[in-house]
């Protein structure tokens, strides 16, 4: 029997599936949108009934009707760093709650050309909008053609959500003073990046007149330290090393242990992010926690709001940070 015959000569709808399965329309929507909100038994039952009725979501037809494909993009600068996959996972989970699928792209070296190419690829694949961690601000003449929410920094003319990086730097300096440190070294991120610059400036402002910054080495946010940074760590002329993020702190801990420098007995180490690995016993890292999951969730909420109201006022959300004390200090 044809699907149209089963539904009285018409194409079956979600309402038909719900009635035949003995569940609510919301339950059917949860199942067909793969939201994992029902038991495996209910999920299998609803899918079986939908198949028997010949129900099809017919995404192409729905896209023509609504002007949306219910797909968003997610551009991350690296999927090797533990931080960005945490944000991407939160984006995907929140997008599913809104009924959107997610298309993730690793933009690699964060060059403007590579980021522009990632945005173009997403647009060519028909995404409705995108969440993006971008390397640097763009001129007004280089705005993307699709709705974009920026994560990790403000950007003129676009919605954004980011942590209070400057306050995080200040918290690290205050904590260092409270522990009695006087001479410190900095492994700062490249200062062209908003978050790296804000973290360093927050620390330097709060440390002024109270801490002696013996050296400052700018390092790229990749899983290897330049030789200049390794040499600085091995000099043994500071009691504390403050790192731009937890990944760099993890590399600093490794370099110090290879040099047989004890942490925290000989030197303390602090990071920033509180990535999932930071609490592992081998790291046990004192750090500043930024709410990585909330960054992703709030970014999706901003994007959905922008899709529903294209002319709404630009929104910037600044999320609070907190100091997490562990055994590396």
Based on the model shown, name its key terms.
329 residues; alpha/beta; 434 Repressor (Amino-terminal Domain); Rossmann fold; 3 domains; elongated; disordered N terminus
Any overview of this molecule?
The structure is a single chain. The chain has 329 residues and is of the alpha/beta class. The protein folds into three domains: 3-57, Orthogonal Bundle (434 Repressor (Amino-terminal Domain)), CATH 1.10.260.40; 67-162 and 293-320, Response regulator (Rossmann fold, 3-Layer(aba) Sandwich); 165-289, 3-Layer(aba) Sandwich (Rossmann fold). Helix content is 42%, strand content 17%. It has twelve helices and twelve strands. It has helices at 3-6, 14-21, 25-32, 40-53, 59-66, 83-97, 112-124, 165-179, 194-207, 227-234, 246-258, 292-308; strands spanning 71-76, 101-106, 129-132, 148-151, 159-163, 183-189, 212-219, 240-243, 268-270, 287-289, 316-319, 322-324. The protein has a six-stranded parallel β-sheet, sandwiched between helices. Strands 7-6-8-9 form a four-stranded parallel β-sheet, sandwiched between helices. A two-stranded antiparallel sheet has the order 10-12. Helix 2 crosses helix 3 (25-32), helix 2 crosses helix 4 and helix 8 (165-179) packs parallel to helix 9 (194-207). The termini are far apart.
Shape: elongated
CATH architectural name of the largest domain: 3-Layer(aba) Sandwich
Total number of distinct structural domains: 3
Work out the number of β strands.
12
Q: Count of DSSP helices?
A: 12
Mind telling me the CATH superfamily name of the largest domain?
Response regulator
- Name the quaternary structure: single chain
The description of the largest β-sheet is: 6 strands, parallel
